[in-house]
Amino acid sequence: MKYEAIIGMEVHAQILTASKMFCGCSADYASAPPNTHVCPVCLGMPGVLPVINQAAVEATILTGLALNCTIPEFSKFDRKNYPYPDLPKGYQISQYDLPLCINGWLEIDLGGTKKRIGIRRVHLEEDTGKLIHEEDGSLIDFNRAGVPLMEIVSEADMRSAEEAWLYLTKLRTILRYLGVSTGNMEEGAMRCEANVSVRPLGSKEFGTKVEVKNLNSFRAVRQAIAYEIERQTKLLQEGKRVHQVTMGWDEHRHRTVFQRSKEFAEDYRYFPEPDLPPLELSREFVQEIRSRLPELPDAKRERFIAQYGIKGDDAALLVEERATADYFERAVAAAQKQITPQTIANWIVGEIFRLLRENTTEISSIKVSPEQLIELLKLIQEGTINATVGKEVLDEMFATGKSAQAIVKEKGLTQISDEEQLRQFVQEALAKNPKPLQQYLAGKEAVLGFFIGQVMRATRGQANVHVVRKLLQEELDKYKNKE
Amino acid sequence: MKLSRDQVLHIAELAKLALSEEEIELFTEQLSEILAYFEKLNRLDTSAIPPTAQVIDMRNVTRPDEVRPSLSPEEALANAPQRKGNFFKVKPILE
Ligand SMILES: [Zn+2]
């Protein structure tokens, strides 16, 4: 029997605000010493009143609009009661039945086929404190408690680990485009849980849902879901039952492990938060936020293809980060049509990406400005240097921030196109390699490439390849005529 | 409506309260009476009325996203029953 997987995702993303969700404490807790970003409100002391952070509401609505959600006219906060001490109040302020955003979708690209993944809701809540477990007790740092957090809940529309991964990647890209979250999973700014079930293909009923947690990287999400689908499918094939449990991904053993049973439904006793008046979201307000939506990655990709005539794959890579897309467009503008957009795209996707990867850095902190890149590409196009030398020059530019002109001058890398000078190198290469020469004269023309390589090496890559090729032909013809 | 003993114990557990036998008896009675009292509300037909989320007639009370001073760790931890360094300390929690 064939089986299919049903996957839904719950993603929590910290919102990039200056202050916390309901108090004025700084939300930038990353390097703060324990319990230095706390006040009576986020410590849950009696008699205090929380007040909603306007920027967090706007960021959540902006996200909802980018995810094609409806923004209801009325929204409110609720208390989610639970006894875990990571929140000192004994409850988390969250949203239950009237979230800020509902019924949206996000589109993923499955190798050319587009698929919409439904977004059930996006709601706003507060993050919890951090616990450190020790043998004789647990230590709590409340700096993170009260940091604005949005929860994005998808419909169970995904059918494979690949789709879940694409969904998550796309969601992160959008969050970063909007500037509402860093989307950094390794730092916990974006956290994700997957609900996975498996059923016989064609069946209308859902199988038993298993919650998969502890997904701390994009790779973990993909591996854990794939593993869980396989585990459940195997159970069903053996005629066994899937239990409703929470599983955690074990990064080291590459498998999901049992965390806890979910046989008892959690009893959060939600009720409307009496300390917070509800929100009425006028259509003018929503419209004003909509007007702040930037061009989103899909639209940008289509525009890049249409406007600049670059390849679809390159366009997709360029729009993954807004900063990269901006870099490309600035370079295209600087080129003033002297360098084709495709050439610029090739250099960014190839060489710039390689350098960023090798140095584990991001384009936002690159020393090579788009204008400097264009200066380099012009030197190559004009023939002052060849492409191979150009790559070395870019390495140097990347490391030092110097201009291409300066590096070429400093290192004497100007391309040699002078025929007299190059003819000597060509003659030398032929004289030094009698064997390949015999092969060539015997009809093996591919040996020409070997000689070009010899000349390039002898000139430290500075020779103009076109001239070298021409001279080689001439010199080889002389040998032929001698025979 | 009479609450069962198990329901009372469940509520006590959610509220992190340890009840004595007498208290279980007492609260089973009292909670049942309170529930019975509120049962009266069920006589009203509310099917056409949306649930009330707030009784105060206020809307859209928000604040600008500005950082204000926090407490010092000493002030923050002044009431903590237990601390270790600048951390609050609680009984061990099993993960
Ligand atoms: Zn605070």
Protein architecture, described:
The complex is a heterodimer of chains A (483) and B (95). Chain A is elongated, with a radius of gyration of 30 Å. With 483 residues, chain A is an alpha+beta fold. Chain A has three domains: 3-289, no CATH class; 297-411, no CATH class; 419-482, Orthogonal Bundle (Arc Repressor Mutant, subunit A). Chain A has helices at residues 54-66, 161-178, 218-237, 283-290, 297-308, 312-318, 322-335, 341-358, 370-382, 387-400, 404-411, 419-432, 434-441, 447-458, 465-482; strands spanning 3-14, 52-53, 74-75, 78-81, 91-94, 101-110, 113-126, 130-134, 137-141, 148-154, 190-200, 210-215, 245-250, 255-261, 271-272, 279-280. The longest helix of chain A is centred in the middle third of the chain and has 20 residues, at 218-237. In chain A, 38% of the residues are buried. In chain A, the strands form four sheets. An eight-stranded mixed beta sheet of chain A has the order 6-7-10-1-11-12-13-14. A three-stranded antiparallel beta sheet of chain A has the order 5-4-15, with no helix packed on it. In chain A, strands 3-16 form a two-stranded antiparallel ribbon. Chain B is mainly alpha-helical. The interface between A and B is large, with 50 and 36 residues. Strand 2 of chain A pairs parallel with strand 1 (62-63) of chain B, so a sheet runs across the interface. Bound molecules: zinc ion. Residues 20, 23, 25, 38-39, 41-42, 146 of chain A line the site of zinc ion.
Strand content of chain A: 15-25%
The general outline of chain A is elongated
Structural class of chain B: mainly alpha
Strand arrangement within the widest β-sheet of chain B reads 2-3
